[in-house]
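S1.2 Input.
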Amino acid sequence: MMQIDHQTTTTLGALKKAGYRSRSVKQELRENLLEKLKQRTTVFPGIFGFDETVLPDLERAILSRHNILLLGLRGQAKTRLARLMVHLLDEYMPIVAGSELNDDPLQPISRFAIDLVAEKGDDTPIEWVHRSERYVEKLATPDVSIADLIGDVDPIKAATLKLPYSDERVIHFGMIPRAHRCLFVINELPDLQARIQVALFNVLQEGDMQIRGFKLRLPVDVQLVFTANPEDYTNRGSIITPLKDRIESQITTHYPLTLEVGRKITEQEAGLAPEQRAQVHVPPLLKDLVEEIAFAARESELVDQKSGVSARLTIAAYENLYSTAERRMLRNGASSTTARISDFWGVVPAITGKVEMVYEGEQEGPHAVAMSIIGKAIKKQFLQHFPNPTKLKKGKEADPYGTIKAWFAGGNAVDLLLDASDERYQKALESVAGLKKLVSENPALSDDHLTWMELVLHGLSESETINKSFIHTKIIFNDFLTGNLNDTDGEEGDDYPNYRDLF
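S1.3 Output.
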């Protein structure tokens, strides 16, 4: 990065003496990236899971001085990546003081800056712009006009300055000229009307633009980054072929490939209050379960996979899990608590609004789809830590769930109140014969025994070994025969829906 004292260098003459040289914004990004790569420093902090896929492609595009299209489903950090490119710019950039186009003092392009440099020479005043101000972002919407992006004649300026419309000083510059020597990002590119996309041709190919009928050719220097969702190509529009051909690098993003990567992203992005982190303990199993929900949703036949399942689902679910446990803790007058699997009933609202469903999913309803997704996630976590109860070889191996199944078969049941105190929750789980022993005898499950005990109950119900019902404010585990008999009673079921397979 160019090291010039921006506080003392205030004129063009001083800038020349300091050894300043003009560089295009793409060259600036390239040179600063090269320096970071040589020093082996992190180029894109806070980005997880792209180290071997997306980031190498992005770095190659920057080194090649390409304009970039980031293509991927929603919630894949496309805009985050574009914003982080700002850190590859010099910390401060000199401009001609008063210039609205960030004119390079050595290579001015606006009439204002050209005239000022011609008049004052080395005494031309210089201002410095921080790199944080060199990022311009525009969300593409159908109402975006050429005037918004490129510019147009301003009749008010013409009248105020008493200038004819033939004078280029009457032009009101759009967002792209004002982003001269900056990063310019257009999000959701397919939403931009085709005739507006055509206006970008010259910027991409020739590095200049024309405004209205003016002979003015403005050599704008800008690093263009576009983002797009493949699904938008059919739903709302498309990127016209000539424009796509002019974008030199198209980089495809993806969702986290492992639970570990997903957890890092969720932990980093979750907006939790300090007191929530201090008062609510979330066992590692439940953190994995939050991520497993997203994986299950991305595999569900009820969810539209072309639309994708955003990482915002797990972030919102993680926040809701903390809040559900916190609310329960406060209602019981406690000062701390541990999150439970039954707290995932409060995660449902974070799922229902973030998955697009196919026809069959619409028929089921968002609530039922969310329950199905949570149930599949729980079952997968259960089978990773415990034997599959449906695949035990009868007579050839001991049934680790034998005591538990016998206890339920004896007509016993366990009620888990959603807002039960920690003491009542523990008592309910420990009342199930054989459950505590099953967990405590497993050396791999050293901590959070109650969480593992509850996982066993949910896992057995998902494997259809025992019955699970959700009635108003509690989850009931019992034997299938007992559950079916209770269903016919119609007592509580008449007042409250009996949702089977809640999780």
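S1.4 Remarks. The chain is about 45% helix and 15% strand.
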